[in-house]
Amino acid sequence: MLTSGGKSIMLRFLESAINIAKKSGDFIVSHLEDEKIIELKGISNLVTSIDKESEKLIIKCLEENFPDHSILSEERGFLQKKSDYTWIIDPLDGTTNYAHRFPFFGVSIALKYNEEIILGVIYDPIRKELFFALKNEGAYLNDKKVAVSKTKNIADALISTGMPYELTLDEKNFLPFINLSSRTHGIRRAGSAALEIAYVACGRLDGFWARKLKPWDIAAGIILVKEAGGKVTDFNGNDIQLDDDTFLASNGLIHDNMLEIIKLERIVIKK
Fold first, then answer.
1. Which of the listed residues 146, 168, 186 is the one where a domain comes to its end?
2. Residue 9: exposure state from Cβ atoms within 10 A (0-12, 13-18, ≥19)
3. C-alpha to C-alpha distance for 104 and 109, rounded to whole angstroms
4. What is the pLDDT, as a whole number, of residue 118?
5. 268: pLDDT confidence band, cut at 50, 70 and 90?
6. pTM
7. Of 146, 171, 200, at which residue does a domain stop?
8. 231: which strand partners?
9. Residue % of the chain over a pLDDT of 70
């Protein structure tokens, strides 16, 4: 547990992150119906003017509150300072959803101390749902402590996935989808990795897997799932690193089973 002094500092970090995430989320929603300026970083990799404005807002607030801390953000990159603390932000996770006014997107803010994530906040401004976690202090949805699901059998699981922007029609992307589809209650692809990982933390989903995610997609979700009692690894079962190419979060109970199915090299239908 945190010492009294350490806890005071961490609570200050958390309070600031929550306030900033809510402020950014409210800004995003206020422009949801506006005509948007959209740039294409790839055929399905969009960035809007609101992504950039939200990022400016978050960075400005962080620099005002923590001028000595480094910041890693999706659009601006790494703003390095001489500090052991690094904020990792996604100002609008689910940009394609947002651009189409599909109401599933959010703001993600995490804090890393040296190489360890110690704080995570994910805010869904449409549903006013705030997911947050502190190291050794549990995971929360608004004011209620949450935990991962108790689903033990993959056949009873609801899971989710994300596809890389540079989508190729090969076995790496589609074999896991096909093989898991025939073994579970179903697979969802909702378009916001941060929120889907948060859903694993609170038990709405039993697992989530994806390839080629970025640090800002997963940083806050990692600590949320761990503090909620779940498990996060790469596809080899190793502890997840922010620069890993593969990602799996689950309730822990179905984790090994998911790994086995993800690594199948052919279609094996099971009903």
1. 146
2. exposed
3. 17
4. 97
5. confident
6. 0.93
7. 146
8. 250
9. 92
- Regarding whether 102 and 62 lie in a shared domain, the answer is yes
Helices (H), 127-192: 171-181
Sort residue 169 into left (φ over 0), alpha (ψ -120 to 50) or beta: beta
C-beta of residue 267 within 8 angstroms of C-beta of residue 175: yes
Residue 85: beta bridge partners?
A: 113
Work out the mean pLDDT of the chain and round it to a whole number.
92
Q: How far apart are CA 23 and CA 61, in angstroms?
A: 10
How far lies 38's CA from each of 41, 56, 61, 73, in Å? 10, 17, 25, 19
Whether the CB-CB separation of 267 and 178 falls below 8 Å is answered with yes
Residues in the chain: 271
Token pair of 199 as six digits: 């859903």
pLDDT at position 171 over 70: no
Domain that residue 200 falls in: 154-262
